[in-house]
tRNA (adenine(58)-N(1))-methyltransferase catalytic subunit TRMT61A
Amino acid sequence: MSFVEYSEEIRDGDMAIVYQGHESMMPVKVRHGAQTQTRYGAIRHSADLIGKRYGAKVTCSKGGWVYVLHPTPELWTVTLPHRTQILYTTDIATITLMLELKPGSVVCESGTGSGSLSHAILRTIAPTGHLHTVEFHQQRAQKAEEEFAEHRVDHLVTVTNADVCEDGFGVTGVADAVFLDIPAPWEAVRHAKAALKAHGGRMCSFSPCMEQVQRTRQALLAANFEELSTLEVVLRVHEVRSVSMPLPDFGPDAEAPPDRGAAPLRTTTPPREMPAHTGYLTFAAKPRDRRL
Ligand SMILES: C[S@@+](CC[C@H](N)C(=O)[O-])C[C@H]1O[C@@H](n2cnc3c(N)ncnc32)[C@H](O)[C@@H]1O
């Protein structure tokens, strides 16, 4: 098992996702002799997991069952232990697209936080790219490093425990893309510019407040960044339902429909209340003219 390569078989030492339902999943470290409690009873790792195929349906001790899934960055984002606020797949997908990330890309990121975005970046840039991620909280940096090793992506990432606004990313002129998720991104813009390759490269900053966006945009313009754009990505989930609609009465002269009953229709409804705002994504390109 690795977050950047699919394996068929569950092995000792893997991290697997136990799926109890769409709203109830949990990550499990697979260990010989260990047990995990689920809402349907216990799973014994040696008997029920090791040697089975990912995707298998596993019967628990109380007779209910769960699926055991191969981890992906998307499943990790919805099951990871939160040490900070995290980025979710809707924003992550936009960041990946707009920063033009691909296999082989070199990316700088700060802060690492809970590593939600980092795992998605690593899957995209594998097998030859590299992520330099900077986190100033010592325990968060250490925990992220441990998780990258457990998820077998540590060869693709360098974690640095530092203040990115003071010390930068620790690399110069190598990055294809830079991503910032810190409270004062404008203080790191000069370091982002220094980390990016001499010719071009793109950066993105995530901020919950418009005031942060304004200050970041001012710093980007002052540093001669180009093609500035700020987006807010809002996920709107609609529930699909079947409804019956009475046929309209067009009066006595109208041609009678073959069946005067109700017409079954498939429609969607948005939930009454919907959490929407996460933050604004500000994108910019490094000037291609080396003199700027
Ligand atoms: C919101 S979290 C990042 C979440 C991350 N994007 C994710 O998806 O899991 C922000 C992180 O930035 C770190 N941070 C804040 N200011 C920083 C700085 N100047 N240098 C390095 N890290 C910083 C914080 O300690 C925190 O862990």
